[in-house]
Structures are given as structure tokens and as C-alpha cells.
Amino acid sequence: MKNFLFFVGSVFILFSCTKGQDSKPASATIAVSLPQMFSISDLADTLQPIRVNLSDVPKPISIKVPSQSIGSYTHINESGTLSMINLAPPTSHHLPYLTDENDQIIRNASGIPYIQGDGGLSQFKNFTTDNGLALDAVNSAVLDRRGHLWFGTNGGGVSRFDGILFTNFTTSQGLAGNTVRAILEDSKGLLWFGTASGGVSSYDGNVFTSYTAENGLGDDAVFSIFEDSAGNIWFGTYGGGVSKFDGTNFTTFTSADGLADDVVISIAQDQEGNLWFGTNGGGASKYDGTSFVNFTISEGLPSNRIRSIKVDHSGIIWFGTIGGGVSRFDGNNFKTIRKEDGLASMVIRTIVETSEGVLWFATELGASRYDGTKMTTYTREQGLASNSILDIVIDANGKLWFCTDGGGVSRFDGESFTNFTASQGLGNIIVLSTVEDKNGHLWFGTAGGGVSRFDGQQFTTYTSAQGLASEIVSSSYRDQKDQLWFGTGGGGVSVYDGEAFTSYTTTQGLAANEVYNITEDSRGNLWFGTDGGGVSRFDGDGFTTYTSQQGLVGDVILGIVEDDFKKLWLSAADGGLSRFDGVNFTNFSSDQGLADDAVIRLVRDKQGNLWIGTENGLSILSSEKIRQIEKVVSLEDYKVMLEDSVALFQTFTTSQGLPDNVILQIAELPEGIMAVGTNLGIAIFDGPKEGKPLDSLRNIEIFNSDTGFPVKDLSDGQNGMYVDQNGILWAGTGNNKTALVRFDYKALKRNHAQPAVLIKELRLSEEVISWHSLSKDYDLGRGGTTNTFPRTTEELMVYGNILTDLERTELKDKYKGIKFDSISSFYSLPQNLVLPYRNNDINIDFGTDELAKPYLIEYQYILEGYDEKWSPVLKKTTANFGNIQEGKYTFMVKARFTGPTEDEAGQWTEPTSYSFEVLPPLYRTWWAYLIYGLLFISLIYPITIYQRNQVIKAEKERTKERELQHAKDIEVAYTELASTHENLKDTQAQLLHSEKMASLGELMAGIAHEIQNPLNFVNNFSEVTNELVQEIKEERARPEGERDIELENDILEDIESNLEKITKHGKRAGAIVKGMLQHSRSGKGTKEPTDINALADEYLRLSYHGLRAKDSSFNSDFEMDFDATLPIIPVLGQDMGRVLLNLFNNAFYAVNEKKKEAGDSFKPNVIVKTSLIETNKDKKGIQIKVTDNGKGIPKAIVDKVFQPFFTTKPTGQGTGLGLSLSYDIIKAHDGEIRVESTEGEGTTFIIDLLIPSISS
């Protein structure tokens, strides 16, 4: 095959990977290759694309969808074998209809049945006794100010839920009764529980206080509780009318006072301040503070049994009745909503209103949602725990909690997600492709169940029995004629015109019978991407097929799109991306920066950008890049474009926030929001704006099972993720529970408030403690309270039983010494806690008010005084601290919610704190130290006196004997010492002379090398000048007419230039000699003003050149980092130069030795740095650092380097006095010298010199 394969090696550009909150794409600079280009016009005739005309082959099979089971036809199945298929009408499965208590379908005025919910499985999460709920029959609920839910059960007391655990309270803790009909939190934070027969209890977090008829309550059966705008608490009783409690006294109103009935089961207050009481047979009573006005069926109510009353945000009063549905009262007229309007039941138990103004009705047959126009009902079919709903409560983030009669509690996370499975009528649970027809109906191609049409009411499934080419439908497309095309997994492609399926296979010229993608271009041609056969173009008359033989990037084509310039882009499963202009293929792969050569998905957004999903990340080719590529004619053009470009493809992976790198689906939501489907759920983020490239995944949100959403791995067919005309995202998954996902992104419930952080429990050495049991508040001998309910409540919660007096005494003995002022309410935390040292192992439990998804809360904490910094970001809710030393400590914890949020709700909260103190152990208390001191003083004095007397006595006896002997020894020792001293002085002088001569030799070698350079220049330029003089003489000797005046002038200019250079280098040699003379004069013991930078510069060069003179193989880099602001300071120049020379020689020696071992891979380097510093004497100073990258000094000997005669050099190469002398010289200058070394990495010598004050 002849082709024009243009491949040019390394060029320019592109990708790396960074990570951030708004993550950035992989886009740095690495070498890439130019794309490959193929031209069909250059191919031999035998390699031209294959064309098959329909007129030359058998006609395609066309089957009209039958209305009854009549007839059969020959079908080619996925394996290629023939089989007879009996024709039959498509099967239909309607979604669950809303039915009444008699199981009769409820229809609207047009006779159309109401669908339950959105028809599928909604986002419900159910809680029962298995999760810790006291009882599954839940009558009432309330959300308290700490963000926790309280559920009143029908016999099990009350349960508090904090998002993780249920805590149950019964009569054992002081509750008035275990059947709780109503709950209220008042404006003071007190919780009120109305019971079926025990009256009402208030709870302040520590103590239950109960009120009954004996205290003035109308009746002990309390069915409703309400707080009015004045702070009065109203209790609706069963038979005793309604009672008002002002905090001190009860006032009761009955039918004798004008109340409609004495059984009051609901209470509300309207915007004018009137109170409304719903009764169980007398209708509703309005009370204006003076008199009652009653409303019954006669006034327009549908029923006289008013189970609930709700005043909405606009002031409309809604009455939920028993048997009459819902009645809306605007102050003048009643309007009733019945089951014919879509209401689940005529028995309404509760009405609540959301922040969006949506009303929810709790009925005996489900929960109905009313937005003012449409009624939607949810039942067990959608995931509700039970159809009998007794109460509804809304949490701080807008999620609804349904209390059911026997099913426990159901949480509803909103209308955003609905799942459809085979139970709702899908042909198969795995949906591979989706297309929407002209009527707005959705067609879902499945993996084995044919294609299912969804019209909002039912699924109608078409298979081979209706003429579909195969039951596996992996691609689907709606053409310009509104025909639907279905690519199958082995049966070719079928087109449906509304009446019949017509199927095309390889017999008619299709490249292969497995069709993965279908696209129509702007000219009306259909393109089919196949498995192994390349791509086929269908123009209505026949098929033309292109494969890798014509230059296509691969033969397994998974994606086809047309760009703004009418060029096709095709993606292959194993080769990358092809651009096709009708004649030429230009192929792009990972060599050009594509995330991976396995391209699974190819999508064009509304701005013309190409989104490319691969097995190793998401790549984007911007519309601007496509515009640039459109102008390219040859590879040279690509080369120029790539040279001027920052990047060709932008790539995003898990490093930038995606949940997984396998990109299976891509779809564009309204307002330019992009959805990317992966093996681990869906990522949604803001797409490019105003034609600009996407520089990060802004506002990315992840939706999968880990984040609490019913989304698993996405399927991999064409349009397996699809956005319908209403902006709803439909996604097929590979899981039988999630199956087909309907995702209304706009309806997503987001947390709009930051979580409130709570410290819940403090344990000692992992042991839970009843702190009330340790409190002195219950010590009657000290005036303690007789109300032991707080202690009883906590003991039951902690230990499961009430402690005996003996057990309580043992507990107090165990924790003897613990002190605290009080105990906080609701969560029993001791305040101002003081712990003995033996109890210094502490465990602190904390949490938030996030009820729905506490697993998406992240925490950081710190114990001030114990930790130096905040903990890493964690999800655990316990902090453990052991062996805490004595002192005062403050524990602080903060949190953030990582799920979908609004505004700043996802930011870190302000820390919540808890303080305590740990006492020292007994042996470290102040009085223990006092005792130690007194004991020491009392014991040491007599012992000292005794020992001193004994020593004096012994010494007196020995002195007499030693005196004579000492006199003789002293005379002998003095003679020997004098002789030794003279020998040492001679030795020291010799060594010092030897060291000075060695330094002088090194100095002279450097000087000689320094002077030799300028002298070499002088000699060289002198010789050249002599030659030039001879040339000009010869020129002038020529006859007048033959002389070259211009040449003479050039020679004279060269002579003049050489003389200038001779003068320059002569002066340089003179300057070196002058400088050395100056330094020699400075060695007379007089400090003179010296430029440290100049001194270091000079001796560094002398050292280097001296060593080079000794060893021509020696070589090293050196750097000078001098602070130009250093002042001139007085020093002994010659001595200071000797110090620097010694340090420089040592440094060069060290790097040279390392290079001998390491070889050429090692680059020796010596760095000399000067700077101004603040010394430890609070004065200004100059610091000199000499750093090498040699082998370093071992830790064992680094402290010995300044000792006389100590050396690390081999025997004969060092005296061991260089650093010792340097140390003495620096000390004589009132300075300091020290060493820092890391073995294997290098050494730094540091000199600190004081800058003398002006006065000194």
C-alpha cells in the first residue's frame, strides 16, 4: 500500500498534572510527535474505499410492527445463524398507578391515571428498630435547635437521632408515658412531649418534668402541642379541650367556652395572631384571644374532623381532614382538594411546607407533594417504608422525614434521582443507548432486552418479535426525517419509521453487524461505526466503507461527530482519533497528547469543543484548536501550530478530581454544565465559558454510592448517558439495583448551611462514664437535689441499668479526685473538668447535625497544649490523647460537608472547643517539692558537719607525714617540669613554624599562579607587538607608490591595542604584589580596616590556583555569594587571611577526595557566602560561610576538628593544627567559628565576627 505517512520525531509541548480544589488539567511541556496524515487519493485502486450499492444486493428485511401475533420471518441472530421468529405485538408495562383504599386506579379529569412519584424508585432511606429506633410505629417528630430529630413512638417512648445513632428515652428516664402523640421544641429550647395517657413532659436536656390533670392540664391524653407568638404553650387534649400554659399556670378552654369540640387534635396560629383549633368532630375553631368562631361542613369544610392545620407562607390556611381530603381557606372561601386531584387519600394526618413553598400531605395511603399545580404521590412502590404516614418533619437542609405506622422512619432526599429497573418495565436492566423521538418519548436500547420506549406512563418494549435486528442495542440515533436508527450487537442496524423496522447488515454493504455508533452529517449521510469493520457511510443508495487501509485510525469505531467545519472526527477503541475531510485522514493519539489511545466516547458540545473519553482520562480539543487545525494543509503547518501552542489537548484525570479515569459517557446539561460518566459514577462540573478553554474542573461534584447517590458504574453504549429536551439526564448503569437513572440536576437538594459541630462524649481510658453519678449535686448530706432523673437517665444510657448505691460508691472511688462545676444538657459533658494525673488518657467523641450523610463530613482537631498543629483531615469522630502531662488544655474541632452545597456551606466551620485541666502527679506538686526541700535541708546539715570534722581530723594526721615527703617531691618535680616545659615550647614553635610555612607555601603557589597569568599576557602581547613593528617597517620600506597606508594604520591600531593590554596586565600584576605587601604589613599585630568580601575573594582564588599549581588534575566549581552591604571592620588581615585560606584549602580537598571516589558524575562545588547577622550578644555581626559538597565529617568526630593535632587527612598530609590555629585567631577577634556537617552530603564552616560600635 502506497501512502503518505508523515512522521516527524520530537517536537514541542504539552501535558503534566496538577491538583487543586478547582483542579487544573495536565498541561506542561513534554516532547510529542506530529500527527500522521494519509491521503486516499494516493492509494492504489485496490485500496480505495469499498462501495456497495443497494441495487446490487438483496433488499433489506422490513417488518411492520404487528398489532397481533400473526406470522413469522427469518432472522439472523448475533452469532450469524438463521432462525425463525414469530411476530408479536410489543409488550407494554405501565408504571405504578395511584390507587385508593379500595385499590381502584385514581384518574384525572381526562381519565388519565396518576403515576406514583416519577414512576421509578425514589431516593428513600429507611430506619427501623434494626437501626436503633425505639419502635417502628412513629406518631410524631420534631427537629431541635441542635439539628437532631426526636421521634415519638406508639409505645416505645421517644428516640433522638443525631445522624448516626438513636438514643431512646422512656418512662424509666422520667418521660410521662411511652406513647408519644405530639412533640414541640419551644422558644426557650425546652422539648415538650404529649403522651396518650400520662400528660405532658418537658425536657431541658437533663430532667423530665411532667404535668397532668392534677396540675391543671385539661386531660392526660395530649394529642397536639403548639407555642403561640406570646410564648404560651397550648395543649390539645382528648376530651379535656385545650389548655394554655404560661410557664406557671394552666388555663383550659372547652366546649363550654365556645370551643367546637373537646377533642382537639391540631393547633395553628394565623398571620393575624388568631389561634385555630382542629377538633375530632366539631370542625375548626378560631380564637382571637376573647371568643371562638367555629367552622364546619356548613361553612365549606369537607369534614368536621380536622387532623392537621397549616398556615403557609402566604397566609393561606390548609386543613387536613379525616375523610374529606385537604381544604384551602383564603379567609373567605374553602376550596377542597380530593383524590381526583391526585391526592393519595382523603385521610390527611399532617401538612408541612418546604422552604420552596411546596406542600406535603401525610396520608394513610402515601405522601402527596403539591407545588400549587401538580400533585405527586409517593408510596412503598417508590421506596417509602409504609404507606401509612403519621407525621412529616423537615430537617435543616430541607430533607423530609416521614413517620410511618409500622414501617419506622423514611428519609426522602429529594426528587433529583429516580431509578428504573425491569420491575418498572425496562426490557433489560442494562441500558446501553438512548434517543428521544419527535414526540418527546425516550427509547432505551438495552443489553439483551431490545429497545424500550418510555412515554412517561409506561414502557413499551420492541424486540426481534417486532422486527428489530437484535435484542442488543448498543447505539441509537434520530435522523433529520425523524426516523430512529438502532445499531445492534450482531444484527446490523435497524431503522424505525413509526410503523416498521427495516434492517441492514453486511449483506447490504454495512462494514460489520456490530454497530457501536450512528451519526448523520450535515449532508444527510449516515455514518455507522462498527466493531472491526471501520466506518460505513450510507447515502440512501448504498454503503461506502473506510478502514485502516485507507488511513482510519482503527477499525473498532466507537465515536463519530461532525465539527463546525463539516469535518468528521472518529474515535477508535485502540488507536486514538481520526479527522476526515472526505479525502485525507489525520490521526491523533497519545503521541500528540491524547490521554490514551483507547477512546471510548466522543462528544461535541454546543461551543464546538470535542470531549474525548478514554480509558485513562478525559481529553478536550477546544473549538479554537479545531479552528487552527482547519487551516492546516501539511505537516509543516502542524509543526508551526504546535510550536506556537501551549497544548493541543487538555487532559483531566483523578488527579484533577474525577472519580475514575475510565470515561464511559459524556453529556452536556443546560447552561453549559458537563456530565462525565465513569466506572465509579458521574462527575458534574462547569464547562468552558465564552469560548475559553477549560483550565480546571470548576465546581466539580461526584455522584456515586460513596457520596450517597443511586449511581453505579455507567454503561458503555452510544448515548448511554443522555439529556432529554427537558434537561433531565438519563444514565444507564451496569448494576441491577440502579439500572436506569433519571437525574434532575436542577432539583438536587443541596446543603445550604454549614454543619454545627457538637462535642458529644468524653471518656477516660476508653471507658464511658456516667458523669451525673460522680456529681455532688445528689449528695443529700450537702444539700443536694432529690431529683435523681438526670443521674438515672445517664446511668441507663451508659450502663443499661440503674446503679446500686454500692456500685455508685465504687465508681466514685475509682474516679476519686475528679472535679467539675456542672454537667451540660443533652450531651452530658462535665464543665471546667479537673482530672488527677492518673486519669490523663482521654477520648473525645464529636459529630455534627448532619442527619442525612454524616459520612460526607470531614474533621480536623487539635488539643492546644498537647498538639503542635491540627490533625490531618479525617472522617473519624473520635480523638484520643494519652499520657497528657499536667496543665490546662483546650480541645478544638472543626468540620466541613463534602457533598453538594450552596454558597459557603462547604467551607470549614468555626472550631468548637472544650477545656479541661490535668493535675500533676503527687510527686510533682508544689507541696511535694517543698517537702523535698525541707528533708534535704534537715538531712544535709548534720551529715555535712560530721563529714567535715572527720576529714579535718584525718587530714591533720596525714599532713604531718606528707609535709617532709612533699618537700622532697616538689624539688624533684620542679626540675623535671622545667625540662619538659622547655621541650614543649621548642616542639610547639617547630609545629607552628611548619604550619605557617605550609600555609605560606600554599599562599605562594597561589600568588605565583595569580601573577603568572598577567605576566603570560604581557609576554604574549609583547611578542605579537614586535612582529607588528617588523611588519610596519617592511611596509614603510616599500617605494612611495606601493605602500599600503590603510594596512599601516591597521597595524598601528593593533600595536596601540596590544600596548594597552600590556599596560593593563602589568598593572594587574602590580596590584597583586601591592595587595600581598599590604597583607604582610597587616600581620604586625595591628588591626586595620578590612573589606571582608575582598579578602575572601582574594584568598579563595589564591587557594584554588595554589591547589591547581600543585595538582593539574584538580578542578572544582566555586561560587561567591557576597553581601555588598557589609561594612569595613578592623581585623588582622594576615591572620584572617590564613584562617580563610585554611578553610578554602580544606573545602577544596574534601570535594576533590569525593570526586576521586564518585567519578565524573560528581560535580565538586565550594560556596563562600557573607551576610549581616544579629549575634547572640544582641549586636550586629558579619557571618562567613564556607560550604562544600564533599563527603562530610562523621558525627563521631565532628566535635574534635578544632582540637590541636586532630586531622582527618591521611598521615603526612596534615599537621592537625590548621583548624586549631584558626579557632584561636577567630577567638582573638572576639568571634566564633563552628562547623555543621552531614555525612555523605557536605560540610559548612561558619565564622561570626562582631562589628565594633563607633564608640569602641
From TrEMBL:
Catalytic activity, reaction form: ATP + protein L-histidine = ADP + protein N-phospho-L-histidine
GO molecular function, one term: phosphorelay sensor kinase activity
Pfam families reported for this sequence: HATPase_c, Reg_prop, Y_Y_Y
Enzyme type, top EC level: transferase
Protein name listed in UniProt: histidine kinase
Keyword RNA-binding attached: no
Record flagged with keyword Isomerase: no
UniProt EC number: 2.7.13.3
PANTHER family associated with the record: HYBRID SIGNAL TRANSDUCTION HISTIDINE KINASE C (PTHR43547:SF2), TWO-COMPONENT HISTIDINE KINASE (PTHR43547)
Domain Histidine kinase: 1006-1253
Keywords: Membrane, Phosphoprotein, Transmembrane, Transmembrane helix
Spans through the membrane: 926-946
